Amino acid sequence: MANGTWDWDNATRNDTRADVYDASLVIEHLLRQAANVLGTSTD
């Protein structure tokens, strides 16, 4: 997260086999919500 921006293009996909998969979905959702509130593009 350089300069206050998340690098969506280089973020890896969530591994459905990972023990923390459910938590990763919540984290992704919260990051996208924060970006939306801050007016940062997630595309």
Structure description:
It is a single chain. The chain is mainly alpha-helical. The protein is 42% helix and 0% strand. The chain contains one helix and no strands. The longest helix has 18 residues, at 21-38. It is globular, with a radius of gyration of 11 Å.
Query: In percent, how helical is the residue content?
Result: 40-55%
> Which range does the strand content fall in?
under 5%
How is the biggest beta sheet arranged? none
- What is the alpha-carbon Rg in Å? 11 Å
What assembly state would you assign to the polypeptide chains in this entry?
Answer: single chain
Task: Note the total helix count.
Answer: 1
Distance between the termini: 15 Å
Gross morphology: globular
Q: In terms of per-residue confidence, which ranges show pLDDT below 50 for 5 or more consecutive residues?
A: none
Summarize the helix and strand pattern as letters.
Answer: H
Structural class: mainly alpha
Give the total of beta strands.
Answer: 0
Average pLDDT reading: 76
